[in-house]
User: Fold this.
Amino acid sequence: MHRHRELCERAVDPLEIAAGLEAHGVTDRTAARFRHKDVFSLAEEMYARVPRDGDPGREPTAPPAETTGVRGAWAGLALLPGAVCTLALLALNATTGATRLAVGIGGALAVAAALRTTLRHGPLRAGEGPPAPATRLWVWWLLVYALLGDGLLNTALAGGPDAGLPLATAPLVALAVAVAPATWCARLFVAGARRRLTTSRGLAEFASSVRPLLLGSVVLFALALAVLLGLSGAVLDQDVDFAGAGALGVLLLLARLLTAHGRTHAPAVVLGTAAAAEALAVATVFAARLPGCAFLGTPVESAVDAAGVGVVPGATCAVAALALLIHAIRTLIRASAHAVADCPTGGAP
Assistant:
């Protein structure tokens, strides 16, 4: 009680203390040493024993001010990457030659700036976990592959490239626009978890109630992304790899959701592995042209012959997304993932 006195004084219910104890590594086995059956039972006694803010004799803490305007700001900012990407694509289609290259570079920088601005606010804002600078590099590699990878792999298997690579702009436009539903789905998950944190009667009850909320938010985003991929493909008159682009979108959402809750190591490792797998697939096809190295390209060629060129990003991102989903189910359903982090959306923490 002395070690966690500050936590007990600020807690509004026993579950908040239980979440804080869980975050500090206290388990049911530890609670048993104090003659309690679980962490929640221990937290209830600590909640009853320690005076808290708002008790008689203590000056109450003022509740946080309403920040409706801030909420409206981050919700509107979520539309910015999609709008900037659409304008950049229109400008790209209206130019040719060197001007087209300059517009493409400028558009990419503008989209990157818009995305960074959006992710600095709202429920997808980075949490307090240790920084992972390489994560940004892996994300950009995966996006570049979504733009150029399938075309490069196709031409490499055909013996090229002999001419300019085809650009798959439809998936990138859909992914940029999907930042908005990703942000709103993340907000749905965060707000629902915070509500359950105040109503649950134990850590196990909280975990069982948050798990379907997490899965539902991911499925809702996947459905929204599928609709956007279909619309962008129809408008731009391009064939869209729903499996590859959809898996990539879900992978990026899970990575950012974990990062927003301070879990940065797993996203960096999984994104880096996915990027390396895609790079290796293309590299083996080119390496197969070397004398005596034809066998190196056989696995990729066989997979492409069987399922099409989209099998590389589809399988890679799907496996990576599944790995992050399993990790998210294990970590984001813990009360400590929501109780110890400040709410980034402008609402009550």
Notes: The mean pLDDT is 81. The chain is about 70% helix and 0% strand. The radius of gyration is 24 Å. The chain has two domains: 5-49, 91-339.
